[in-house]
Protein backbone atom coordinates (compact mmCIF):
# COMPACT_ATOMS: atom_id res chain seq x y z
CA UNK A 1 0.00 0.00 0.00
CA UNK A 2 1.39 3.42 -0.91
CA UNK A 3 0.55 6.32 1.32
CA UNK A 4 0.18 9.90 0.18
CA UNK A 5 0.03 12.90 2.42
CA UNK A 6 -2.96 15.20 2.42
CA UNK A 7 -0.83 18.07 1.08
CA UNK A 8 0.45 15.85 -1.75
CA UNK A 9 -3.07 14.73 -2.64
CA UNK A 10 -4.50 18.21 -3.09
CA UNK A 11 -1.45 20.03 -4.42
CA UNK A 12 -1.86 22.09 -7.55
CA UNK A 13 0.63 22.23 -10.39
CA UNK A 14 1.43 25.93 -9.99
CA UNK A 15 3.95 28.08 -8.18
CA UNK A 16 2.25 30.57 -5.90
CA UNK A 17 4.58 33.57 -5.66
CA UNK A 18 2.06 36.39 -6.17
CA UNK A 19 -0.58 37.76 -3.81
CA UNK A 20 -3.44 36.58 -6.01
CA UNK A 21 -3.99 32.88 -6.64
CA UNK A 22 -2.26 31.92 -9.90
CA UNK A 23 -3.90 29.33 -12.15
CA UNK A 24 -4.19 28.50 -15.81
CA UNK A 25 -7.61 29.50 -17.13
CA UNK A 26 -7.95 26.44 -19.38
CA UNK A 27 -7.52 23.98 -16.48
CA UNK A 28 -10.28 23.22 -13.97
CA UNK A 29 -8.44 22.39 -10.75
CA UNK A 30 -11.35 21.18 -8.60
CA UNK A 31 -12.16 17.85 -10.23
CA UNK A 32 -12.98 15.26 -7.60
CA UNK A 33 -10.34 12.64 -6.92
CA UNK A 34 -11.17 9.23 -8.37
CA UNK A 35 -11.17 6.33 -5.95
CA UNK A 36 -8.95 3.44 -6.98
CA UNK A 37 -8.15 0.04 -5.56
CA UNK A 38 -5.62 -0.30 -2.76
CA UNK A 39 -1.96 0.03 -3.71
CA UNK A 40 -2.47 2.68 -6.43
CA UNK A 41 -1.88 6.36 -5.77
CA UNK A 42 -4.85 8.67 -6.02
CA UNK A 43 -4.76 10.96 -9.02
CA UNK A 44 -3.49 14.47 -8.37
CA UNK A 45 -4.35 17.63 -10.27
CA UNK A 46 -1.19 17.80 -12.37
CA UNK A 47 -2.67 18.94 -15.66
CA UNK A 48 -1.03 21.73 -17.66
CA UNK A 49 -2.23 23.75 -20.64
CA UNK A 50 0.50 23.95 -23.32
CA UNK A 51 0.19 24.84 -27.00
CA UNK A 52 2.36 24.91 -30.10
CA UNK A 53 2.94 28.47 -31.35
CA UNK A 54 3.83 27.29 -34.87
CA UNK A 55 6.24 29.17 -37.18
CA UNK A 56 8.83 26.41 -36.69
CA UNK A 57 9.36 27.12 -32.97
CA UNK A 58 9.37 24.12 -30.65
CA UNK A 59 7.66 24.27 -27.27
CA UNK A 60 10.37 24.35 -24.56
CA UNK A 61 10.57 21.44 -22.11
CA UNK A 62 10.31 23.90 -19.22
CA UNK A 63 6.96 25.13 -20.58
CA UNK A 64 5.61 21.58 -20.72
CA UNK A 65 6.93 20.36 -17.37
CA UNK A 66 7.31 23.63 -15.43
CA UNK A 67 5.06 24.85 -12.66
CA UNK A 68 4.94 28.55 -13.54
CA UNK A 69 1.78 30.43 -14.50
CA UNK A 70 2.24 33.21 -17.05
CA UNK A 71 -0.80 34.52 -18.91
CA UNK A 72 1.43 36.40 -21.37
CA UNK A 73 3.55 33.34 -22.29
CA UNK A 74 2.98 32.25 -25.92
CA UNK A 75 3.27 28.55 -24.91
CA UNK A 76 1.08 28.44 -21.78
CA UNK A 77 -0.93 31.67 -21.92
CA UNK A 78 -3.43 33.52 -24.07
CA UNK A 79 -1.03 35.20 -26.51
CA UNK A 80 -0.54 34.38 -30.18
CA UNK A 81 2.57 35.23 -32.18
CA UNK A 82 1.76 36.99 -35.45
CA UNK A 83 3.38 39.65 -37.57
CA UNK A 84 7.11 40.34 -37.46
CA UNK A 85 9.87 38.03 -36.26
CA UNK A 86 12.95 39.98 -35.13
CA UNK A 87 16.41 39.23 -33.71
CA UNK A 88 18.38 41.32 -31.26
CA UNK A 89 20.78 41.42 -28.32
CA UNK A 90 19.57 41.53 -24.71
CA UNK A 91 20.57 44.81 -23.05
CA UNK A 92 18.81 44.60 -19.70
CA UNK A 93 16.99 41.98 -17.63
CA UNK A 94 16.23 44.23 -14.64
CA UNK A 95 12.44 44.18 -15.03
CA UNK A 96 10.27 41.29 -13.91
CA UNK A 97 9.55 39.00 -16.88
CA UNK A 98 10.56 41.76 -19.32
CA UNK A 99 13.83 42.35 -21.19
CA UNK A 100 15.18 45.23 -23.25
CA UNK A 101 16.51 44.11 -26.64
CA UNK A 102 18.75 46.24 -28.88
CA UNK A 103 18.32 45.97 -32.65
CA UNK A 104 21.15 47.35 -34.81
CA UNK A 105 20.53 48.23 -38.46
CA UNK A 106 21.98 50.28 -41.29
CA UNK A 107 20.24 53.35 -42.75
CA UNK A 108 21.10 54.44 -46.30
CA UNK A 109 21.92 58.13 -46.96
CA UNK A 110 21.36 58.73 -50.71
CA UNK A 111 23.25 62.04 -50.85
CA UNK A 112 26.51 60.43 -49.74
CA UNK A 113 25.71 56.96 -51.13
CA UNK A 114 26.66 55.46 -47.77
CA UNK A 115 25.09 53.75 -44.75
CA UNK A 116 24.97 54.91 -41.16
CA UNK A 117 24.50 52.73 -38.09
CA UNK A 118 21.30 53.11 -36.11
CA UNK A 119 19.64 51.14 -33.34
CA UNK A 120 16.31 50.72 -31.57
CA UNK A 121 15.60 49.39 -28.09
CA UNK A 122 12.55 47.12 -27.82
CA UNK A 123 10.89 45.94 -24.63
CA UNK A 124 9.82 42.30 -24.85
CA UNK A 125 8.06 39.89 -22.51
CA UNK A 126 10.29 37.06 -21.25
CA UNK A 127 8.50 33.86 -20.32
CA UNK A 128 9.85 32.01 -17.24
CA UNK A 129 10.59 28.99 -19.44
CA UNK A 130 13.62 30.86 -20.86
CA UNK A 131 16.76 31.93 -19.04
CA UNK A 132 18.62 34.75 -20.78
CA UNK A 133 21.50 36.98 -19.72
CA UNK A 134 22.76 40.33 -20.85
CA UNK A 135 24.45 39.98 -24.25
CA UNK A 136 22.46 36.95 -25.46
CA UNK A 137 21.02 36.98 -28.98
CA UNK A 138 17.25 36.32 -28.87
CA UNK A 139 14.43 35.97 -31.38
CA UNK A 140 11.33 38.10 -30.81
CA UNK A 141 7.83 37.47 -32.10
CA UNK A 142 5.24 40.21 -32.44
CA UNK A 143 2.02 39.81 -30.47
CA UNK A 144 -0.85 41.95 -29.22
CA UNK A 145 0.07 44.83 -26.88
CA UNK A 146 0.88 43.33 -23.49
CA UNK A 147 1.48 46.67 -21.75
CA UNK A 148 2.16 50.30 -22.60
CA UNK A 149 5.53 49.55 -24.22
CA UNK A 150 5.62 45.76 -24.71
CA UNK A 151 4.47 44.37 -28.09
CA UNK A 152 6.90 41.46 -28.51
CA UNK A 153 7.53 38.09 -26.87
CA UNK A 154 10.89 36.31 -26.56
Strand order of the largest sheet: 1-2-3-5-4
Structural class of the secondary structure composition?
Answer: mainly beta
Distance between the termini: 46 Å
User: In one word, what is the shape?
Assistant: elongated
The overall strand count is 5
Backbone CA Rg:
21 Å
Helix content: under 10%
Mean pLDDT: 82
Query: So how many helices?
Result: 2
> How do the helices and strands follow one another from N- to C-terminus?
HHEEEEE
> How much strand content do the residues show?
25-35%
- The residue ranges in which pLDDT falls below 50 over 5 or more consecutive positions are 1-12, 37-43
Main sheet: strands, sense, barrel: 5 strands, mixed, barrel
Concise synopsis of the structure shown:
The chain has 154 residues and is mainly beta. Helices cover 6% and strands 28% of the residues.
Walk me through the structure.
With 154 residues, this protein is mainly beta. The chain is 6% helix and 28% strand. The longest helix has 5 residues. The protein is elongated and about 75 Å long. The termini are far apart. The relative contact order is 0.18. The N terminus is likely disordered.
Helices and strands, with pairings:
Elements: H1 6-9, H2 61-65, E1 85-95, E2 98-109, E3 114-125, E4 137-142, E5 152-153
Amino acid sequence: VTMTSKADKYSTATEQTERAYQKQTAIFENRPLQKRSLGVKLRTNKYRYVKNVGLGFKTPKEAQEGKYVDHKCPFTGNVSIRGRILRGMVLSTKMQRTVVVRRDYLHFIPKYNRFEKRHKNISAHLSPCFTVRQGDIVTLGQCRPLSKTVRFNV
